[in-house]
């Protein structure tokens, strides 16, 4: 429930077409991987359009990082859901995903047909540019979230752990441990003012989706091992 220190204004709902066009522009201009996309999203939806505040966006990113799959796609789906319901979520996914899917398909067809004509080093150059884009996104989020020495130390420790232990469950363990550390040592004395995000999902639908998630999480590895 919102407290007195929170903003009670609910962000206005947007139609699916508007959400689609906004995410389509991002899909056509955002390069790099999920971390870079999170930086683009923050610049577009927090700083420019003010669809979210910093705290709400950071909460969404933290939640989506804890889930399996690309965090940027999940954050985009969540933003579309918050601003336009289920249609807005679908519009956000389509607008952001279709450009890269179409470009990747055309690129694959082009490589298969004219691969020998592609100058040497082009792909390597694109990878180098992507590194710079990701670094800029990480730096922008770090300046907002890592504001003091303890938070910087936790971020460095988490990064070192996942680099030294490159396993799936080590990433989950690091995220869970960081959450526990935050609850114990970084609980704010007073609740900071922030926009309370409207959740356009009914409780029954949320519980059904959660049960389906855990069912697939347990069954899919068993099915995969059975097909080997």
UniProtKB/TrEMBL annotation:
It comes from the Bacteria. The keyword Coiled coil does not apply. It is found in: Cell membrane. The chain crosses the membrane at residues 16-41, 90-114, 120-140, 152-185, 205-224. One of its GO terms (molecular function) is chromate transmembrane transporter activity. Signal peptide: none annotated. It holds the Pfam family Chromate_transp. InterPro entries: Chr_Tranpt_l_chain, Chromate_transpt. Keywords: Cell membrane, Membrane, Transmembrane, Transmembrane helix. It is a multi-pass membrane protein. GO terms for cellular component: plasma membrane. The keyword Cytoplasm does not apply. Belongs to the chromate ion transporter (CHR) (TC 2.A.51) family. This is Transporter.
């Amino acid at each position: 429930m919102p407290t007195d220190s929170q903003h009670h204004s609910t962000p206005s709902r947007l139609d699916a077409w508007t959400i689609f066009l906004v995410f389509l522009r991002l899909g056509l201009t955002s390069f790099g991987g999920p971390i870079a996309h999170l930086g683009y999203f923050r610049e577009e939806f927090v700083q420019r359009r003010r669809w979210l505040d910093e705290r709400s966006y950071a909460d969404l990113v933290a939640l989506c990082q804890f889930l399996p799959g690309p965090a940027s796609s999940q954050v985009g789906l969540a933003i579309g859901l918050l601003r336009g319901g289920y249609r807005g979520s679908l519009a956000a996914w389509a607008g952001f995903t279709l450009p890269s899917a179409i470009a990747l398909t055309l690129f694959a067809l082009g490589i298969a047909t004219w691969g020998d004509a592609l100058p040497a080093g082009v792909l390597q150059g694109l990878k180098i540019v992507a590194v710079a884009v990701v670094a800029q996104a990480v730096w922008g989020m770090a300046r907002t979230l890592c504001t003091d020495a303890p938070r910087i130390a936790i971020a460095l420790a988490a990064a070192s752990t996942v680099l030294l232990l490159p396993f799936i469950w080590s990433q989950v363990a690091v995220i869970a441990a960081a959450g526990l550390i935050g609850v114990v040592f970084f609980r704010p004395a007073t609740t900071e003012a922030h926009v309370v995000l409207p959740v356009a999902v009914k409780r029954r639908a949320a519980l059904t989706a959660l049960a389906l998630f855990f069912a697939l999480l347990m069954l899919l590895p068993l099915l995969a091992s059975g097909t080997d």
